[in-house]
Amino acid sequence: MLIASSSLGILLLSAAAATSVARQASQGYFQWGSAPIRGVNLGGWLVLEPWITPSIFEDKPDWVVDEWTYGAYWRDRRDTYSEIRTHWGSWFKQSDLQEMKRVGLNTVRIPIGYWSLIPLSTSEPYLPGAFDYLKLGVNWAQQAGLSVMIDLHGAPGSQNGFDNSGFRGPREWFWNQTNADRSISALKVLVAEFSQAGYANTVTAIGLLNEPFPVSPDQVGFLRKFLQDSYASLRAIQTQKHLVIVIDSAYQGLPAWQDFMVQGYYDGVETDCRFNNYTLVYGYNQVLQWFCNQTDYFRASDKTHWTIIGEFTPAHTDCARWLNGRCRGARWDNSLNGHRLTFPGDCKKKTGSDISRWDGDYVEHLARSFETQTYVYEQASGWIMWTWKTEEAADWSMSAGITYGWIPTPVWNKTRG
Ligand SMILES: *[C@@H]1O[C@H](CO)[C@@H](O)[C@H](O)[C@H]1NC(C)=O
Ligand SMILES: *[C@@H]1O[C@H](CO)[C@@H](O)[C@H](O)[C@H]1NC(C)=O
Ligand SMILES: *[C@@H]1O[C@H](CO)[C@@H](O)[C@H](O)[C@H]1NC(C)=O
Ligand SMILES: *[C@@H]1O[C@H](CO)[C@@H](O)[C@H](O)[C@H]1NC(C)=O
């Protein structure tokens, strides 16, 4: 999850995939392109994010801001693993996935970091072990009848510098080939496991790299080569061909990927689009209009690649505590360094777990935002909301939305026109 500006991830699947995937669909695989994807992310589970589970961070020194520093904190203490194993074993349960199915979802997206997949050097303090829980989650999805997209959310050196990549700081991933090679090694572990026939009806896609953030043409080139190299390596080792390979648009916009990995490739491209500093100042109706205005953009992209929005939120602000990083404030109330909105909003009225403190019309706006966005994204190939649950930021929680009614059951029911 991009916390800096609240992202919408979009999956692009090349049209060339249509034939082979459609044939698979008739054998019982997930019907890419024939039914909209309606999903939710299992955020804050196998990759820690301070704003999703502040309780894991708030009893630690201020320098513990991401999974790297979290590991550094625990590595030299007794009971190194007890807290994180408790978290892995409890943040999601089998009953959560059954509930996701019950409310009409068909897909879950599960983020994982490279540190859970390949050997680490002694200078990397991460605590490995999450891969076993990924397999458990996939198993629960299989039993519930949900499809799974697995997503490499953190790469060596960090591909975006956000805490949700495991490492908050400089984006060192782009600096050298060792990082790209190790990322491919991590992806190979995923593909070796999940391309086995037993997962064929469940694990439908592997995301190569979440939200890489290149800032120069050289870095874009480095990324494009990585995506092509990954594709070739992963296709070479697949025992079954049911996995769709997904790439992220990397803040370049959908048109930048229109001609990329189309000819000669079976499947996928993932991309990003976002609401940003500017849409924060939009009023409720204006932001809904802005979503609607994207319809043609998504439809156009969906003609050459299946396009889904891999992350979105109905939340209107960045108020959720630590959304922009531990101990950082929000743009909405001008408490994020150097940010100046023309109005300072009151964050207490837009987030938190006690919705009785919210502005009276905010719940209705969340309902309209969810309905509008899911409608727009279904004009392409579907959507995956960020995220299923949070400890306190109810505005970002699908399960809170269902409980309080701003998300309908079933989730695809349109109740507001
Ligand atoms: C490549 O990046 C890693 C950090 O991810 C670093 O440890 C290593 O020294 C870098 N190698 C070169 C040649 O810059
Ligand atoms: C949406 O598009 C309409 C028509 O082009 C335009 O007038 C309006 O300003 C746009 N609104 C936003 C919020 O982008
Ligand atoms: C958005 O605001 C943040 C915080 O003030 C700032 O760091 C960033 O550069 C801004 N981005 C744009 C695109 O204006
Ligand atoms: C959709 O919502 C409406 C209004 O709340 C309700 O009457 C209807 O039964 C719902 N549809 C389904 C399929 O549940």
From TrEMBL:
InterPro entries: GH, Glyco_hydro_5, Glycosyl_hydrolase_5. It holds the Pfam family Cellulase. Keywords: Glycosidase, Hydrolase, Signal. GO terms for molecular function: beta-glucosidase activity. One of its GO terms (cellular component) is cell surface. Residues 83-253 form the Glycoside hydrolase family domain. GO terms for biological process: glucan catabolic process. Residues 1-18 form the signal peptide. Belongs to the glycosyl hydrolase 5 (cellulase A) family. This is Glucan 1,3-beta-glucosidase. The lineage of its organism: Eukaryota, Fungi, Dikarya, Basidiomycota, Agaricomycotina.
